[in-house]
Give the backbone structure.
Amino acid sequence: LIECQDSMDTTVENFLDRSYTQYYNGDQYVFIHQNGLCLVGIAPHHPIIKEGKTVESINFNVSGHDYSAIKLSGKKKKGAPKVRDVTNLVQINCTDGVKYVLKCQVNGTIIECNPNLVAQPELLTKWPTTKGYIAIFQCFSKEADRISKAYKKKGAETLPLDVNEEKEEDLKRKREASQESENPNKKQKSENDVV
């Protein structure tokens, strides 16, 4: 039975690697499928999993919106609430009294909040990237590009620069280039001094 479970876990991991581009932002993941659908959940290094906490309850009714009561209709998913990446999505209550409020991480529409998590909150810690996902989103156009630049891709050795840091680096390079173009003699002088 244990060997069967291990082989199933490997199969699921292979499927995720093949079908989704996997990104991490802090303690949450965003898995983007080629069709624009995104899975959002807690990453394996989230304190709930890392510290072996027990989840007591999960509440999708945060900030005055109950995302578990979404009713969609039709092919275009009418009725799907539009959210921003910083919108509060869910509150996770642990038995030690600690509460975690997680963000949507995606600019788009909520297609589904995992209905199984309310009845079985342990799914969040046992299978965080499969049965324990938090929600499914439909990304707005160009959202995948934003995520790929702002979040850490699975397997990347270093975090990509934050968008603001990237802008600061660009401004710094431009300032240095303009100073060099204003003072070309100064640069030549310093090169002559080194020799």
Q: What stands out?
A: The longest strand covers residues 88-94. The helical segments are 2-19, 47-50, 116-119, 123-126, 143-150, 163-182, 184-194.
